[in-house]
Each structure stands twice: as C-alpha cells, then as structure tokens.
C-alpha cells in the first residue's frame, strides 16, 4: 500500500497543508489525514526541512524490509533489583533493513 512519510516537525506539516491542486482545493484532507487518498504517516525518523534534506517520502512501503540478523536475547537481572524484591530484564536484538525496490519509494529533496 502506498503512503506518504513525513517528518513530525510542524514546519513540514505547514508546508504540506498550504499546497493546493489545480482546482484550488487543498491536497491534504484533514478529516482522514490523506493526500490524494493516500495516508500520511508522521515519524520522528524523517529529517527536518532544510537544504539538501529529504523530509517527505512517498511510495509502496511493503518493499522496505526489516530483517532479523540475530535472534532476540534476554538476560535476567536478579542481582541488580534483589534489594527491592524485583527481577529485571535486558533484551537485545540485531535488526537490518533494506529498500528492496528503490523505484518503489521516492523522496522530496529540499533545494
């Protein structure tokens, strides 16, 4: 499914909210957070608006794969919390990611 990804920074939202189509209608539909019928997803992992930045992406995110490189490991931390009568846990997992079809996602570069 295609979607828009954008930075959570308010400046990016303001820029998108002010864009109109050829009929003079705003392209961002506030009622359901869509642009041209596609969902808009805000994320803190997209860069802020600035020269050379890519704060907005659009495409089929099913081609962005996240893979497990090493299985989840969990350590029990009994000694650290023994005085409080509690048991702690520390978990670690090594993941990797890749855009399998680069043509499936396009970014907007700020000049």
TrEMBL record:
<protein>
    <submittedName>
        <fullName>Phage major capsid protein</fullName>
    </submittedName>
</protein>
<dbReference type="InterPro" id="IPR054612">
    <property type="entry name" value="Phage_capsid-like_C"/>
</dbReference>
<dbReference type="Pfam" id="PF05065">
    <property type="entry name" value="Phage_capsid"/>
</dbReference>
<feature type="domain" description="Phage capsid-like C-terminal">
    <location>
        <begin position="15"/>
        <end position="109"/>
    </location>
</feature>
<dbReference type="InterPro" id="IPR024455">
    <property type="entry name" value="Phage_capsid"/>
</dbReference>
């Amino acid at each position: 499914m295609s979607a828009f990804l954008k930075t959570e920074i308010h400046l990016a939202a303001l820029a998108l909210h002010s864009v109109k189509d050829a009929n003079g209608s705003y392209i961002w539909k506030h009622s359901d957070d869509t642009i041209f019928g596609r969902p808009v997803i805000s994320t803190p992992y997209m860069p802020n608006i600035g020269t050379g930045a890519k704060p907005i992406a659009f495409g089929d995110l099913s081609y962005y794969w996240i893979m497990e490189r090493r299985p989840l490991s969990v350590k029990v931390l009994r000694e650290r919390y023994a005085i409080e009568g509690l048991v702690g846990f520390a978990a670690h997992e090594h993941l990797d990611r890749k855009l399998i079809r680069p043509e499936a996602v396009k970014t907007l570069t700020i000049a």
